[in-house]
Design a protein that fits this description.
Number of helices: 19
Strand content: 15-25%
Helix content: 10-25%
Structural class: alpha+beta
Distance between the termini: 11 Å
């Protein structure tokens, strides 16, 4: 049974940064958007040769930018192992080398500096490249990967609200105060005079409170910045570095406009350590925090937090030049975020990310997504809110494009069944209730949202052929019952693929880690196995749409119910989200109740499970009651009027209602032992033989009563008022 409806809670050294107008052609069109803007693709977490752990000569800054924006690719050496034939260039990129000592300049020459000085060199190089005519119309920004105190990494972009210039002085100060791995000799002599004494590494590194302090410092000084935790579950099971849901909640509490999401689809996908992305708990390449339906991400969304999922390459190198190690894919090769951007500055890109109007993809599984919910004359997209009245229909529209090919290519020649053709197998519509923000005492213990479920699994049969614009379209209707969110995930995999999925859920990714020293042949085998696995298992995740049913809307009032004998029962079942009105002001209590309506009500009562099929030719696949009929038929709750017809608009009779409710109770494991002999009624002979047991139970349970003249009227049509009353009794008594 549905839960009761609840109230919804909820620089002086700075160098000029590129601020040219962005490209006017969008990667994917959102034709129905009421806002002016465009879809842009990119990422905010990648490395260059200026990171100590990215020392390959081919990782100079220019090569990383060339791959992201697909320029001068012929200049890449063979050992780069880049496969960039398909997909589109990025529109934006944030370079995030580690906030630690830098050993090299952007060209790879030895130059030991602190990170803030390395970023200044990096900015000089970017300006030089742009002046030469490269990367026209592209958004390039420099942030850093931050070792949070007591926690794992985060991608940070410090943004000056009054300027498009990267604030080098701010990065300098932040590095002085909150970087424990930048050595003291990397600083000048007067930082302590300006910003106070620097904490010691021993005191700073384990102190999570200093992480919170750093986020608060950004909020007070650079509020347009972002701090987005990377691969949050990487240290699960370790003694240090673990990022918990409590940490995410506290960081989001301090600065919700700065800590507004996480890297739930992590990069470094070619790594061998642990598993994909060096995580042990990773499913279909996605962090367990987002891949588990009803898990940590859903728990955060269930509080009403606007907390989003993103992906990145976390690129250091793909395969090392000595062919001993592998790490990740080049920017734009395997993973990308699509973000709706309104404006032409990098701040606008971050505002787009902050809005939640974005989706994230592996392997170019899709390259456009228009996901909306509408109703009451309004509509909302990803990251937005839709105000609905309880009981009204929420119309879900999913439009997507999928390319023909992606960038799969073998690392080296080997036998494989993997190819670079792309096809979506299914898309899941996932929903969970929003019950309001938790008390801080529950931050650590409340790690799930048990109301979350797959509302509907869509396949090719649901989206058919593409339209003239190349979009596949899905339409689905679901009643507004309580405050909730809807999100999507999709994959190229079937629902039961050995080693990859079970009942549609992603399985933990197979690890190709190894012990000891591998031979050259073993290394090549490992590289190919990892690469094949990644392109076998491709997923996308959307950010959610929130549907709000304000508290004053929960007390629905119909003009034809107020003085009706069944008003109490009607108002109750409407508030439960089981029944809807026939209009905004009418319930039509004395109109006959149809078979499709009853089955829909029982389906809602069961929590709208998505399993089942049916044989009925008169039930269209896009009918609002199709899923309900399929579920009820599969579970032997309902039969058709014959083997091929359900007769959805036919009035439900009293004995049919008794049989369906009885079957539901039996399937749900409820007590159906109550009986009445029916001896007091004069028309028991009219009860169909297959309905006798159900009628005895319905009368014995107090669900059905006789009419005037001691008749049961088994074949009489049930009105909507009578149906509401019987279901009200069933909910409260049984």
């Amino acid at each position: 049974m549905n839960n009761k409806l609840k109230l919804f809670m909820g620089t002086s050294l700075a160098l000029l940064m590129l601020s040219q107008a962005m490209m006017t052609t969008s990667v994917s069109a959102d034709n129905n958007s009421t806002n002016t803007g465009k879809w842009m693709s990119g990422e905010y977490h990648t490395h260059t040769i200026q990171s100590n752990d990215a020392s390959e000569p081919f990782l100079k800054l220019e090569n990383v930018l060339n791959t992201a924006f697909r320029e001068d690719l012929n200049s890449l050496p063979m050992e780069a192992v880049a496969s960039l034939k398909y997909g589109t260039p990025f529109d934006y990129l944030v370079v995030t080398d580690h906030l630690r000592n830098s050993a090299r300049d952007p060209e790879g020459n030895e130059k030991a500096t602190a990170r803030w000085e390395a970023i200044a060199d990096q900015q000089n190089k970017i300006v030089e490249l742009q002046k030469s005519g490269k990367y026209a119309g592209k958004m390039i920004y420099t942030g850093f990967e931050w070792d949070m105190m007591g926690l794992d990494h985060a991608s940070v972009g410090i943004i000056d609200s009054k300027s498009d210039v990267v604030p080098i002085d701010a990065i300098h100060q932040f590095e002085w105060l909150y970087s424990y791995d930048t050595t003291a000799d990397s600083f000048t002599s007067n930082e302590a005079e300006i910003w106070g004494e620097r904490p010691t590494k021993e005191g700073l590194k384990p102190d999570t409170s200093k992480t919170y302090e750093a986020i608060d410092w950004l909020k007070n000084n650079y509020p347009d910045s972002f701090v987005l935790p990377n691969h949050p579950s990487r240290h699960n099971g370790s003694n240090s570095g673990v990022v918990t849901i409590e940490d995410l909640r506290k960081m989001n509490d301090i600065a919700p406009n700065i800590v507004f999401g996480m890297e739930g689809m992590p990069g470094n996908q070619m790594a061998a350590s642990e598993n994909r992305s060096e995580l042990a708990e990773i499913y279909g390449g996605a962090d367990v925090m987002i891949s588990q339906v009803g898990g940590i991400w859903d728990a955060l969304l269930g509080e009403g937090r606007r907390f989003w999922n993103f992906t990145n390459s976390d690129f250091h190198f793909k395969v090392s030049s000595n062919r001993n190690y592998s790490s990740g894919y080049w920017p734009s090769e395997y993973s990308r975020n699509y973000t709706w951007v309104e404006g032409d500055t990098f701040k606008d890109v971050v505002d787009g990310m902050r809005s939640g109007k974005s989706f994230s993809v592996y392997g170019d599984l899709i390259n456009a997504l228009d996901f909306k919910a509408s109703g009451n004359g309004q509509q909302a997209g990803m990251g937005e809110d839709l105000q609905m009245s309880a009981g009204d229909n929420t119309n879900i529209t999913i439009r997507f494009k999928s390319p023909e090919y992606n960038n799969y290519a073998p690392i080296s020649e080997h036998e494989t069944t993997v190819d670079n053709k792309v096809k979506v197998d299914h898309i899941d519509l996932i929903s969970g209730e929003v019950t309001g923000k938790l008390n801080e005492s529950q931050y650590a213990s409340n790690t799930t949202n048990d109301t979350t479920k797959i509302v509907k699994r869509f396949t090719e049969a649901d989206w058919g052929q593409p339209d003239a614009e190349g979009y596949y379209t899905i339409n689905y209707t679901v009643p507004a019952d309580t405050n909730r969110y809807y999100r999507l995930r999709g994959t190229n995999l079937g629902v039961d693929v050995d080693g990859y999925t079970k009942n549609g859920e992603p399985l933990k990714d197979q690890s190709f880690d190894y012990e000891g020293t591998a031979t050259a042949e073993e290394n090549e085998d490992r590289f190919n196995s990892i690469n094949d696995r990644n392109y076998t298992s491709m997923w996308f995740y959307s950010n959610p749409i929130f549907v709000e049913v304000p508290d004053n809307e929960l007390e629905m009032s119909f003009s034809d119910v107020n003085s009706h004998w069944a008003s109490t029962a009607i108002n109750s079942v409407v508030k439960e989200g089981l029944f809807s009105g026939t209009s905004e002001t009418s319930f039509s209590p004395d109109t006959a109740m149809s078979r499709s309506v009853l089955v829909t009500v029982m389906h809602r009562l069961a929590g709208q499970p998505s399993d089942g099929t049916h044989p009925f030719q008169d039930v269209a696949t896009d009918a609002y009651y199709n899923d309900a009929v399929a579920w009820a038929s599969t579970n032997a709750i309902v039969k058709g009027v014959d083997s091929k017809r359900f007769a959805p608009e036919q009035s439900i009779t009293r004995e049919q209602l008794a049989v369906i409710v009885y079957n539901y109770a039996e399937v749900m494991g409820m007590d159906v032992s109550a009986k009445n002999t029916l001896a007091d009624f004069t028309d028991t002979i009219k009860i169909s033989s297959g309905a006798s047991k159900a009628m005895q139970w319905a009368v014995g349970s107090g669900l059905l009563a006789g009419k005037e003249g001691k008749v049961l009227d088994p074949s009489g049509a049930v009105t909507r008022a009578e149906g509401a009353t019987i279901l009200h009794r069933f909910i409260n008594n049984i």
